[in-house]
Amino acid sequence: MFTSEGVADKSSLQFHERFSMSVEFNKLRKRIRRLAGQAVVDYGMIEEGDLVMVCLSGGADSYTMLDSLLYLREVAPINFDVVAVNLDQKQPGFPEDILPAYLTQLNVPFRVIEEDTYSIVKEKVPEGKTTCALCSRLRRGILYRTAVELGATKVALGHHRDDILETLLLNMFFGGKLKTMPPKLVSDDGRNVVIRPLAYCNERDIKAYSAAMNFPIIPCNLCGSQPNLQRRAMKEMIQEWDRRFPGRSDNMFRALTDVVPSHLLDRKLHDFNTPAKVSGELDDVSNWLAAPNEPSEVVVAPIRLMPGTSTIGSSAS
Ligand code: SF4
Question: Is 5 part of any domain?
């Protein structure tokens, strides 16, 4: 076990040993593995014979993803393999021995790519501006190219449920788009299939698991970039909502899995010129949450029953 400097830390080892044997830890590990397995199955992320390239940055998310995929490789009813890839971006002070030592200890095949994106980003982005957008674009290009070189059929990224929700809000608030990070997508050039096995796992669990496992974390601020303030604001907003209205972020996430195109405004997704189907509209939560004076999107119109009987309300659109 290593610290971020790559040396064993006694107190954290003791914590790790105590916690890793506890009932809570077992529950946490089971939950993460179950949710990762569920996401993999739900979105058809991994198929027989796949070589999954696990992008390992040295952060808690990527270690947890690798750990989950190694577990799934053992128990899944299909055969697939894993190769870990780390991109050394030549940030000052990058501890280049940590990941090779960790992966060797686990007997996981790996490749470290050395590309000085740090200098490019420093040169291109004006002082004081956030560097993450260009840095991520460069990194993504290098990782995709490496996946092709390695013959990897899937590229696994460590984004989790909270990343997905934050990205949803960022896109809505700043981009005017209803979109987020999908659990699986094909790259623009069609050469890579990107998967996010931790899509169902929440950040709190991942952080707790990473601490319990004593993963040798490599700090993500070596580049000296300012933290992404907008993303942080989204995170804090979601956390505050969850404090005030427990379960709200779960509902937001569930909403992403249950989209009703006919009840949005995108004419590319729904033909509004043909009569809409009415099924399910009475279950629409917005109907009974609408304030008394707000128009509901469902018009309640009387329908006539058989002659001699009374009338009842029904929805129509
Ligand atoms: S924090 Fe630094 S290394 Fe990470 S994406 Fe931003 S610029 Fe790149």
Answer: no
Contact 66/96 with Cβ under 8 angstroms? no
Residue 297 belongs to domain spanning: 266-316
Q: What is the mean pLDDT of the chain?
A: 85
Please compute Rg for the chain using Cα positions: 24
Question: In the structure encoding, which two tokens stand for residue 96, read together?
Answer: 């280049």
Handedness of CA 108, 205, 199, 121 (dihedral sign): negative
Average pLDDT over residues 38-45: 98
Shared domain for 138 and 35, answered yes or no, is yes
What is the distance in A from the centroid of ligand 1 to the CA of 122?
A: 11
Query: Do 163 and 277 fall into the same domain?
Result: no
User: pTM of the entire structure?
Assistant: 0.82
* 281 and 202 within one domain: no
- CA–CA separation, 286 and 266 (whole Å): 19
**pLDDT tens per residue, range 58-88:** 999 999 999 999 999 999 999 999 999 999 9
Q: Is 225 in the pocket of ligand 1 (CB under 6 A)?
A: yes
Asked whether residue 205 is assigned to any structural domain, the reply reads yes
Ligand 1 pocket test: pick from 134, 220, 229, 231 the residue with the most ligand atoms within 8 Å of its Cβ. Answer: 220
pLDDT tens digit sequence for 123-160: 988 887 778 889 999 999 999 999 999 999 999 999 99
Q: Does 260 reside within a domain?
A: no
**Distance (Å, whole) CA 170 – CA 247:** 20
Q: What is the pLDDT of residues 167-225, one digit of tens each?
A: 999 999 999 999 999 999 999 999 999 999 999 999 999 999 999 999 999 988 777 77
**3-class secondary-structure state, position 75:** helix
Write out the binding residues for [4Fe-4S] cluster.
132, 135, 223
Query: What is the count of structural domains for the chain?
Result: 2
| Cβ of 136 below 6 Å from ligand 1 | yes
**Domain check: are 305 and 186 in the same one?**
no
Per-residue model confidence as pLDDT tens digits over 93-124:
899 999 999 999 999 999 999 999 999 998 98
